[in-house]
Specification:
With about 300 residues, the chain is α/β, with parallel strands linked by helices. The protein has a four-stranded mixed sheet. The protein has a two-stranded antiparallel sheet with strand order 1-2. α4 packs across α7, α8 packs antiparallel against α9 and α8 packs parallel to α12. The protein binds beta(2-thienyl)alanine (TIH) and fe (ii) ion (FE2).
Length: about 300
Amino acid sequence: YNWLLLPTFPDIAVISLMFEEAQYFAPVSTRDDGSIEVELGAGHPGFADPVYRARRNAIAALAVGYVPGTPIPTAEYTDQEHEVWALVSRELGRKHREYATAEYLRAAERLGLPAERIPQLQEVGELLEPLTGFRYVPAAGLVPLRDFYGVLADGLFHSTQYIRHHSTPLYTPEPDVIHEVIGHANALASDRYSRLYRLAGAAARRVEGKEALEFISKIFWFTMEFGVMTDQGELRAYGAGILSSYGEIEEFRGMDIRPLDIAAMGTTHYDITKYQDVLFRAESLEHLEDIVGGFWATCDDEVIARLIADVR
Ligand code: TIH
Ligand code: FE2
């Protein structure tokens, strides 16, 4: 799964910088003729597949041309793309019953995503909005941390629209529409999880420094992306990154599971290109709301600077 680190991909330092800055996204640029190009590294499973590359470029162009406040442009997915969704949806459906929290399962039930075809992001927003007020916004590539998190406070979620390459359905280090929708939209359909997303957004807006913003984003990573909790007497996942990968979901119970701790989560390093080997466990949803929700609701630059100083 380390295709991003293969030699022809820009440069390890640049990549790790990008990981610190935001989640991983392939760079998107505009050619001289105005067309949009997504740069896939030579180790990317879609690198040598001209059909896939053309799809990535076409889908990125939709997001680049998106005008906020208007309906999200429709992506005309191919049969092969719908098949990837259907396969992953089927595999995850089974595994979620065993590994996802009751709150996530209930929320997924009430959202009612299609299992056989990729839903349009516009449609996802229309399903979500009456439930928790969240809507989707298309993103072509890297969204600056402050924007990505900040607008969560307004009930907006930035989402990629492309789907992972058909040769690697079980895991991708690149967030794709399966991750954004099966992982995040199902969670955003829960009143309680969606409130936590909004609190993360409010926290990101409140702080001024880059260090504080990164600290908040790491807590988000170890909770809303890769969080696990004791639920029905066993370890279950509520994090979107675990719940969107039918490879990783089989492994998380065997990882290094640590107690929920704000200072530890905010300062622990992670590598987005592999299965997460350090996870933080909440003892219940109430515990998560108390500790993490409580922190996001009140934290500021000063509090965070003190926490970081104490860890050092
Ligand atoms: N690894 C996830 C998946 O395969 O669905 C996608 C990502 C989650 C978080 C960052 S990338
Ligand atoms: Fe995510």
